[in-house]
Amino acid sequence: MIRPLYPTDLFSLLFSSKRMLPNQAMAWDSLSKRSPLSPQAFLEHWLPLRGRRHTWICLERGHISGLVSVRSCSGPTAWQIDYLHADDERCLALLDMVSAAAAEQGVRKLFLRLPLDSPLTDGARRAGFSSYATDYIYRYGGEGGQRAAEVPGPYLLRPRASGDEYVLFDLCSAALPIPVRTAEGMTLREWQETRDRGFWQEQRREFVLEKQGSLVAWLRVNASRGVGCFEIMFHQLDEDGLEWLVNYGLMCLDGKSPIVCVASASQERLLRLLEELEFEKVAQSTKMVKELAIRIEEPSFMPVQA
């Protein structure tokens, strides 16, 4: 039986957690050993923040044998699956339940990130998910980045401002492959709503890099429970500017351990640079999406009384 997780399931979840299979859904940094019993997830489960988390469990003979949990992305039309404890058989049933519940609430897209060699990949595909991108996770093994005090000319680095949304969307449209743009947003509104907003306790900072008045790169830095992670989106950025931006990400995360960088398979220049700067590739993930059909009520005709 599959049903929503209730507060009365807490003790059963505690006793069943050691017997459940490991979580296959990967976080943004993919090195966080997250559990549905962690303080962050616990508060989101039992003290819902604007309805951002929904969880279902598979019950068999009074024991929890599987679990799936989702949190909303930056907008109400997209959900991210960030907990998936199941074998291949239960995976399909749990993902079907998520899809049905999402469609009822007007969600248009479901996102799931799995390890490249995950045993649940085939089950996710049978549930309607398709792969659209591959990410690599690199862990930094050096002593620290450059301590450059100024951005090399002719660049200007500044914190991201609220008015940068249109320019950032244009940057992503130019830098991302078509399959990624199709999955994560072909329009500004869709792109805004499908972005991952992370856990509510995470510390996130964002910067933009300009060259002669044009925005050429976007740096996102995230810290949570000692783990530091950064990601770079760039277009028409030379090697010196890209290397400086990587080192700036390291500077922002000084003192965190480990420090990782998430890079897409399409960012070949960044991948080569990371390996040159003492980063080690430690994980690969496949990003998957499922498009949901939304029920639309058709107009009906009524007789007009004279």
What attributes characterize this protein structure?
single chain, about 300 residues, alpha+beta, Aminopeptidase, twelve-stranded mixed sheet, about 30% helix, globular
* Order of secondary-structure elements: EHHEEEHEHEEHHHEEEHEHE
Strand order of the biggest β-sheet:
1-2-3-4-5-12-6-11-10-9-8-7
Going by CATH, the architecture of the largest domain would be: 3-Layer(aba) Sandwich
Here the CATH topology of the largest domain equals Aminopeptidase
Mean pLDDT over all positions: 86
Radius of gyration: 21 Å
Number of domains: 2
Name of the CATH superfamily of the largest domain: Gcn5-related N-acetyltransferase (GNAT)
The class by helix and strand makeup works out as alpha+beta
Biggest sheet layout:
12 strands, mixed
Number of strands: 12
Low-confidence stretches: none
Shape: globular
Strand proportion, as a percent range, falls in: 25-35%
Layout of strands and helices, then pairs:
Blueprint: E1 2-4, H1 10-16, H2 39-46, E2 53-60, E3 63-72, E4 78-85, H3 88-104, E5 109-115, H4 121-126, E6 130-140, E7 155-159, H5 165-175, H6 178-184, H7 188-194, E8 203-211, E9 214-224, E10 227-234, H8 239-252, E11 259-264, H9 268-276, E12 279-291
Parallel strand pairs: 4-5, 10-11
Antiparallel strand pairs: 1-2, 2-3, 3-4, 5-12, 6-11, 6-12, 7-8, 8-9, 9-10
Helix pairs in contact: 8-9
Briefly characterize the structure.
28% of the residues lie in helices and 32% in strands.
